[in-house]
Amino acid sequence: MLLQSLLSLILILGVAVAVPAKEKRVHRHSDLSDHAHDDSTGFQYDHEAFLGKEEAKTFDQLTPEESKDKLGKIVDRIDTDKDGFVSHGELHQWIKHRQRRYIEENVLKHWKEYDQNKDGKIGWEEYKNTTYGYYLDEEFDDVDDKSSYKAMLTRDERRFRTADRDGDGIATKDEFTSFLHPEEYDHMKAVVIQETVEDIDKNGDGKITLDEYIGDMFTPENGESEPDWVLTEKKHFTEFRDTNKDGFLDNHEVAQWILPGEIDHTDNEAKHLIHETDTDKDGRLSLSEVMDKVDFLKSSTLTDYGGMSVDEGHEEL
To answer: How far apart are CA 14 and CA 30, in angstroms?
Structure first.
């Protein structure tokens, strides 16, 4: 389980930018994995958090022997004091490092795409024209869901203006990073909350009902019964998320849900991975313990984060 968890942890999402495409809502775990963190249904979250999305895809092409060899090299890199074990602190720092690396590479990728005049900055008009230019010329007339694309444009502009702290209409590298990854910046939290409410609040009253909350995650088909996890989520809504017990989630309650203060999810994931993989319960991981868990994982989830490479003669960290 731990290996799966470790492999999942490297998967660091971030908010991807399409041309144009509907943006995914920013979740509190968005930079670790897109998958739900539920070991009862699988270990994709842990796998991606440990390896990262892109590297996990690489592992999909490897044989079991090649996967073990590459995983061994990754474990060696995590073991910074070279004592032959991976401690909680080393794993925590590794996960944080991969998270930062993913964000940096994701921003660089999009920076090259949107900095059309190569002046080292990205203006709102530059971004808008690159993303929506063709559709703007037609006023979205050839798009089936015209209102959705207009709403996307409005959302992008609002997020861009918030990220543009000096209000000059031009994003520096740091401002553009906060635009793509608002969950990483305190001054962007209000935007993250607003976007979350807008995505789930189907009747537009500015609040989230229980039905809207569940409907965002599960829609039964052909008389399908609700799985147990839906019942659990209903309990979470009524007992924990709806703190004032009025039957709705307001902005403050949504903030507590998706941006829960001082909780360090990379630290929690490191603890979880060690708990699941540390068979002798000494609080650290040996290479043999990690290798013993390989069979619990799909090799496609071993190393998929941020283009990480640990091939012979080339170690990219």
So the answer is: 6
How big is the CA angle at 22 (ends 221 and 184), to the nearest 5 degrees? 110
Q: What are the phi and psi torsion angles at 269 (to 5°)?
A: -70, -40
How many angstroms separate the CA atoms of 212 and 230, rounded?
13
**Span of 110-114, 165-169, 250-254 with lowest mean pLDDT:** 110-114
> Are residues 270 and 286 in contact, defined by beta-carbon separation less than 8 angstroms?
no
Closest alpha carbon to 184 in 34, 37, 8, 28: 28
Spell 182-191 as b/e; 16+ CB within 10 A means b. Answer: bbbbeebbeb
Residue with tokens 């909680």: 88
The one-letter code for the residue type at 273 is L
Q: How confident is the model over 176-202, as a mean pLDDT?
A: 93
pTM confidence score? 0.68
For residue 85, list its beta bridge partners: 286
Quick one: what percent of the chain has pLDDT higher than 70?
Answer: 68
